[in-house]
Write a structure and sequence with these properties.
alpha/beta, 26 helices, 23 strands
Length: 807
């Protein structure tokens, strides 16, 4: 397998100083209050010409280095002082220059005092995420973040956070940034920030150097470690309810993973600042070192970003552990600490060849966290955090919000990643193709993690990985890794050429589709381009456009068709050679006409679910990514979900869209419960008994009974609602179905509760199921429907006993 050579050092993070002044007078600000005073001679706002040239330089660099994504922060000063039109101009220049080349992650960092609906509407339109500076509760925040006349900024910032927490603007909220002052009560600060429901929190050490060391009140030699450790213990004890970048970075680096911040870890720096006058500067935290410390002497008009990379200061920060002082290199936590933030190492006469001025604090904090992680007892089975407890209780009722199902999906993604790592470990030593595929996956995980997560989360990743781990298909290690790497590279617009082994002439691109090649084509070279991608195999080249659609100009290309429905996009997965994970045979590639009929039925079924069964819709929209068409040999309605394929269900297209709606919510119950069972033990797996299930003709183990009962909560609910919305005979049929499944699902819940093999958590879960089913017991049903339900139940039980020779 051939992958492009590892790229030379590049820059993927850019800070654009769109305005150089601020409306606050924070006394701990490194821009205005520390050693560098260059802001005085710069234009207040970045000109349009500088914006245009900056976007051009970033795009030029992205193309040259084949970057899959760049990250840009609009900064200041206070960037909102630039005004909506100037911010729009900056965003549009960046999007325009990068369009077709790489993804843009665009953010703005603000003190929040000017944030209003006008700005939020602009940011929603342009996809700009918003980070807000806030140092905790009012007393803590007022210690430094005030107006020049001494007024508090806290009320304005709280108003901004409230605005970002509105449902319309919540997707814009990137998180809160808090600068530490050890005079503030750490728990008061933490509790105040947690109460704001931010999606992320970052605690920042105040900028300081050996020439201007940080305040150290009291007798402790490590007050900053003490402060952060108090917060860590509160955060950890609460079940780590929100990502905290400092703590997450320490934990990641202790596991050998990459840091999430330049202030920790050994990853090379890949950030540059563009000032309002277009000059390139190094990280602006260097302003705390000495006047002119960040200067490169270069600007966007005259110099490329590759030239900036050659600046000695930039080169020094590309060398990992080699650029650290002797003391740092000998430190036992160097891989986590990384020497701390580069600016914090400065000392006159020695430059940056020193440990961080926070060295003792970082050593103490990292050592404490490492010790706690190593000595933490395993959490007792069934022990849940308050958040997990609430989520499990919600799922036990048979339902699940978008947030709850989203967390199930996140947990399943982690399972896939763990399995993928296990697959990589089983690759034969010396297998260069597998190593190259893994290297590309690692690169994509660094540069385009969200894109790669979407690939790894493909429902049929896990079945393949399990076959590898269980020793059932060792020959497909390289094939599967290369397929994932190729799909990730294509989705990210990465320029690597990936050599992918085919499966009997089929090039599998997970989640994207399949390319049907000649049978003798054992390998295919796949390369992304601006207009599409190319596939070279067996001496032929196919050029496939991104805009070809589901049934485009290239007959060999079978892309996954997607039904785009209001609030839900679901794939009709009829291309993946590994989709045969359900108990029924899969259908062949749908014809254009068949795909249109599926799409029409899905549109009507989704309309029914959102209109009549809205409690299921949010979870389905978040968790159900694919429907795999199945083949029913006798033409009957068949459907299935696989425990190993989270996010997918299989089905033959039923006779009506109503039945398709029933099938979707029924099978998605299995998907949800399978994810729950991955995380929680609900019953004793040693129980070998079998049980009567009123929806099956064969005896079922307890695992099958709990799955079927959980699914039939949705079945019962479907008929409960349909009896009220249908008319005529359809309403009478629905009433009889509701009566039957209410009765038999209730009985099945009773069998589960009395089985004697449920764990305490399982008893609690089954009690939640019972509360839903028993809540329907008082709903009126006609005597005719009750009688018909009783007869149907008796017939099924008698037939089951006769079939299974049980008295």
């Amino acid at each position: 397998m051939r992958v492009m050579d590892r790229p030379q050092p590049s820059l993927s993070q850019f800070v654009l100083k769109v305005h150089s002044r601020c409306d606050l007078a924070c006394d701990h600000c490194y821009v205005y209050e520390h050693a560098d005073s260059s802001w005085r001679g710069r234009p207040r706002a970045m000109s349009e010409r500088v914006m245009e040239k900056t976007a051009e330089r970033i795009a030029e660099h992205a193309r040259a280095h084949r970057l899959s994504a760049v990250h840009v922060v609009l900064h200041g000063g206070e960037p909102l002082l630039a005004g909506p039109e100037r911010l729009r101009k900056a965003a549009e220049e960046l999007y325009g220059a990068l369009d077709g080349w790489c993804a843009l992650d665009l953010r703005i960092h603000t003190n929040g005092v000017l944030l209003d609906e006008r700005f939020c509407e602009l940011f929603a339109e342009l996809g700009i995420k918003v980070g807000v500076s806030l140092d905790g509760d009012k007393a803590s925040n007022d210690r430094h973040r005030r107006y020049a006349d001494g007024r508090s900024s806290h009320p304005q910032v709280m108003r901004a956070v409230d605005l970002l927490n509105r449902p319309r603007y919540r997707p814009l909220f990137a998180g809160l940034l808090c600068t530490i002052d050890v005079e503030n009560d750490p728990l008061a600060v933490y509790d105040a920030l947690i109460a704001l429901d931010a999606p992320r929190i970052d605690f920042l050490l105040p900028h300081a150097t050996w020439d201007a060391p940080p305040p150290r009140p009291g007798v402790s030699a490590t007050p900053y470690a003490d402060w952060l450790d108090a917060v860590y213990q509160r955060w950890d004890g609460a079940g780590r309810p929100v990502p905290v970048r400092t703590f997450d970075s320490v934990l990641r680096t202790l596991r050998g993973e990459s840091s999430l911040t330049e202030s920790l870890g050994l990853a090379p720096a890949d950030l540059v600042v563009i000032e309002t006058d277009g000059t390139f500067e190094q990280a602006d935290s260097l302003k705390t070192a000495y006047d002119g410390a960040p200067v490169t002497g270069m600007d966007v008009m005259a110099n490329s970003l590759d030239e900036v990379l050659e600046h000695p200061g930039m080169l020094a920060r590309q060398q990992g552990v080699e650029q650290l002082s002797d003391q740092c290199r000998a430190c036992p936590v160097v891989t986590s600490c990384g020497g701390g933030l580069y600016a914090h190492r400065y000392r006159t006469g020695h430059g940056f060849d020193n440990p961080s001025v926070f060295c003792a604090d970082l050593l103490e904090l990292i050592t404490n966290i490492r010790t706690r992680e190593a000595s933490a007892p395993a959490r007792p089975a069934g022990s849940l955090s308050p958040e997990e407890s609430a989520e499990l209780d919600e799922l036990a009722t048979g339902f699940g919000s978008a947030e709850t199902v989203g967390r199930l999906a996140d947990a399943q993604l982690e399972v896939n990643w763990d399995l993928l790592a296990a697959v990589h470990e089983r690759a034969p030593r010396g297998d260069k193709a597998a190593a190259a595929a893994w290297e590309l996956l690692t690169e994509l995980d660094r540069d385009a993690p969200d894109v790669l997560d979407a690939v790894v989360a493909h429902p049929y990743t896990r079945p393949w990985a399990l076959r590898i781990v269980e020793g059932r298909a060792p020959a497909t290690i390289t094939t599967g890794l290369a397929e994932l790497a190729a799909a990730g590279a294509l989705r990210a617009g990465h320029g690597a050429t990936v050599d992918v082994p085919t499966r009997d002439g089929v090039l599998r691109l997970p989640g994207m589709g399949a390319v049907i090649l000649a049978h003798e084509a054992t390998h295919a070279e796949v390369t992304a381009g601006a207009e599409g991608f190319t596939v070279r195999a067996a001496g032929r080249t196919l050029r496939i456009g991104w805009d070809e659609g589901a049934d485009g100009l290239t007959p060999q290309w079978h892309p996954v068709r997607r039904a785009e429905l209001p609030g839900w996009t679901v794939a009709l997965e009829d291309t993946d050679p590994l989709r045969d994970s359900h108990q029924w045979p899969v259908a062949k590639r749908l014809s254009v006409g068949e795909a249109k009929m599926w799409a029409a039925d899905l549109t009507e079924a989704w309309s029914l679910i959102t209109r009549e069964l809205p409690a299921y819709a949010p979870g389905v929209a978040v968790g159900l990514r694919a429907i795999t068409p199945l083949h029913s040999p006798d033409g009957s309605d068949v459907s299935a979900a696989s425990r190993e394929a989270f996010g997918a269900v299989g089905a033959a297209r039923p006779a009506s869209s109503d039945l398709l709606a029933l099938l979707i919510i029924h099978e998605f119950q299995h998907v949800k419960l399978g994810a729950v069972l991955d995380n929680h033990d609900l019953y004793d797996p040693a129980d070998s008994r079998t049980y009567y299930a009123p929806w099956r003709n064969d005896p079922r183990p307890l695992a099958g009974l709990i799955q079927g009962t959980y699914a039939h909560i949705a079945v019962t609910d479907f008929w409960r609602v349909r009896r009220l919305t249908a008319v005529g005979q359809a309403a009478r049929t629905a009433e009889a179905q509701f009566a039957r499944w209410r009765l038999q699902t209730s009985e099945a819940v009773g069998v589960l509760a009395g089985s004697g093999v449920l764990t305490p958590l399982g008893e609690r879960f089954v009690a939640g199921m019972a509360s839903t089913v028993h809540g329907w017991s008082s709903e009126p049903v006609s005597a005719e429907a009750l009688s018909e339900a009783g007869r149907a139940a008796e017939r099924h039980r008698a037939g089951w006993h006769a079939r299974n020779s049980i008295n």
